[in-house]
Amino acid sequence: MADGVAGSDARELATEILRLLAENGETVAAAESLTGGLVAAALTDVPGSSKAFRGGVVAYATELKAELLGVDSDMLEDHGPVYAPVAAAMADGVRKLLGATVGVATTGVAGPDPADGFAPGTVHIAVSLAEDTVVRTMALTGNRDEVRRLTVERVLGLTLGRLREEKT
Fold this sequence. Notes:
5 strands, alpha/beta
């Protein structure tokens, strides 16, 4: 695929993220639920990505978010996986687990059906640095593939924005 698995926009974002990280000897890791590895795939589509990409965890099953990423099991039981603080905990957890400078995370409902009382397109993304974690909640439109593609683009865009903030 000339544009990579997630499209040309994701590839451009991933290329810039990896360039900035590599320049500074920093790294990124991904924790994914609804995107099922597409964030990691978008990052690794970029030649030379091994200089800055540490790895990823696809924690699709709710219990894996707690077991692998350290998301509080009581929070998951009380609120479910489609919850902004879950995205924050996933991003922070993968950053720590894989020893990365930056952790990114996606969770939500890709569709086509609602899940846990949430409409398709309900998405939470997060970017974690040692100092703080930023979360965004979105209501995306489109079919399952479009929601997943847009989620990848949005989490990469948020990541790039955070990296640029750090440089100023």
